[in-house]
Amino acid sequence: MGRREDFTVGQLRVTEGVVLDPRATIQGGINPSGAQDYFVDLNRSASGDGLSWSAAFKTIAEAVTASNVSIGLTANRWWARRNRIFVCGDEIVEDLTVLPEKTDIIGVGTDLLPRPRLYGQHSFVSKVGVRFQNMGFYSGTGDTAVMMTFIAGAHGLTFEGCEFLAGAAGMTKALSITDCAHVRIKDCDFKVGAGSMTNIFGVAIEIAGTASIHDLMIVGNRITATAGITIANGTLMGSLVADNYIRATALCLNDASSDVQVINNRFISDAADDGSGGAGASAVKCAILLASGNMMSSSDHRNAPFPIEGTLA
To answer: What confidence score (pLDDT) does residue 111 get?
Structure first.
């Protein structure tokens, strides 16, 4: 058993239990890493300093700028900490170009769904360690091509509990991520606009480049698109595509690397498929020796195991 001694941290005194100094107050929600929280509220009449809801920024871009300044200050020495940006707003219209380094962007509040809606197309200057949580990304009026583009170096990029919606035809990709390692896409929804299959992304998730795309995890997502997930021919051993529900009119998954573990997914495709996972496949292309527990329905299969049970490569 370890030695137990009394000690004090700020206004907390620890003895047999934790005793709060009667003069102290505790504010809920303090950033656990000791860095800064910023607040964005579209419905504020004017931007404040962004340090509270009552003085929130009106735009995400303002919060990103402030976050990048504070996280990089030598005086702060926050290089291993994380800022947080809390975002509230029903129809936020912005085309973002800069990511906030080592920062969580967290959607709060409620609109049609319990998250903010951000309309626009975003092509980012890369920063490391960015996480998007509970955010809604929608194509804006007249938008075509790629919704979110990440160039090389956005390592540690994460999407958790987000949704992506192509409001009309012409959106080629939801996420295009090139040469970024340690990417996580978890529990997200790539949706159908207005319930019509004409309003879907050409590709939901594109992992491109070959220089640094290792340690990839795409887990627990619901995807409807022309093509679900495409992965370039990089070095990806140990990467994982698992527990996704993918409805595609063409390829549900195309892993050109043949390195990714493909586990417990549900694939539904309008295409015919020979079940090989190889060049002749039209619904799922991957290394079948790294695939287990998947099910596939296509134009010529109904609720079939993938890979086909008992076969060897």
So the answer is: 78
